[in-house]
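Entry for the shared binder. Reason: the reviewer on the internal report wants the predicted structure included alongside the sequence.
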Amino acid sequence: MMTTSRKNDPLEPVGPDCDVVTVPARQGLEAVDILRRGAGDAVGPVLHDSGRGTLGFLVPPGTAAAWDVPGSVCTETDGRGLCLTPGRPAEGSDWLVPPGEADLATDPAVLREALGEAQRMIEAADSRS
């Protein structure tokens, strides 16, 4: 398991290089369920930001350069501001899938498929209401 520590200099990396895909919480929760039902350990660490109503999936570095899924944003972190410890990562957020219980990152192709399926499920449920 990889361990990291917080540093006082905000410009210094404090975690592994990764990108973060941010989605609305409803879609993200559906996608987590879809990923967990899939074969193997398909979901990496996932952050829940209750204040913003979003989920953040850790994905491999470089994902942001080609990410184009509508309704989501992929941000490069270069390890800045991200500390992969099981404790609370930041005020107003918490780990839905903590580091250590999952792979280091979610495969972006698998996440893209899960987010698409989740969106279709949400649209189908909303159309029945």
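Summary line for the report: Residues 1-14 have pLDDT under 50 and may be disordered.
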